[in-house]
UniProtKB/TrEMBL annotation:
It comes from the Bacteria. Its EC number is 2.7.6.2. InterPro entries: Thi_PPkinase (IPR006282), Thiamin_PyroPKinase_B1-bd (IPR007373), TPK (IPR053149), TPK_B1-bd_sf (IPR036371), TPK_catalytic (IPR007371), TPK_catalytic_sf (IPR036759). CDD domains: TPK (cd07995). Keywords: ATP-binding, Kinase, Nucleotide-binding, Transferase. It holds the Pfam family TPK_catalytic. GO terms for molecular function: ATP binding; kinase activity; thiamine binding; thiamine diphosphokinase activity. The keyword Nucleotide-binding applies. The keyword rRNA-binding does not apply. Residues 141-206 form the Thiamin pyrophosphokinase thiamin-binding domain. GO terms for biological process: thiamine diphosphate biosynthetic process; thiamine metabolic process. It comes from Thermogemmatispora aurantia. This is Thiamine diphosphokinase.
Amino acid sequence: MQAVIFAGGTLRPSLLIEEALRQADLILAADGGAESALRLGRQPEVVLGDLDSLAPALAAQLEAAGCRFVQTPVEKNETDSELALQYAIEQGATAVTILGAWGGARCDHALANVLLLAAYDQVAVRLIDGPSICWLLRGPGVTQVRGQVGDLVSLLPLAGDAEGVATQGLYYSLHGETLVFGRPRGVSNQLIQPEASVTLVSGQLLIIHTRSDLL
C-alpha cells in the first residue's frame, strides 16, 4: 500500500507530485499540511497532529466533508510528520511519500523530515518537492536512479561516513570510495544515461535526484 503525507512545509507542485498522488492508496496530512492538500484538490482521509497550525474554519470544513482527525497533545516527543508516518505504517503502508517536507518558516522541521528517512527502515520513505526526489540508501545495498541524461544526482552521507560507494551511469564515477560525513563532495553529479546505479558497502547515503526537465 502506498501512502502520501502532506507535511506543513512549502510545496512546489510538479509532475512528480501528481504521479505520487495518482498512485496513493492513502492520503494523510500532518496538521497544516491539510491546506497544501486542499490547494492541490485532494482531501486527506486523516489529519494528525496537535492542530496548532490548521485554521479552525478549515478544520471544520474538513470534518464536515468526512475527514478523520487524530489530535495529539502539543507537548509530545514526535513531530506531526513523524506521527503521520507512524500512522501510515500502522495502516499497512509499504511505501510512503512525504510532500511539503522542505521550506516553510522552520528550517528545523525540514531537517527533521530528512532525518526521518534514517529512523524508519521498515518501509520505503521518500521526499518529493518540485523537481526533486530524495531517499535513503543503507549499506550494504544498491539503488537505481532512473531519469534523463543531464538530470542532477547528489549523494550525501548521513549520520557518518558512507563507505564503499560505487556508481555506474554518473558523470563523476566512484569506485568503492568513502564519502565523508559533512563534506559535500557528492553534490551535483549528473546522469550520463537514462539509468544509473549506486552501490554502498556501509553507512547511509542520501540520494537526491533532480529532474532537469522540471527545473
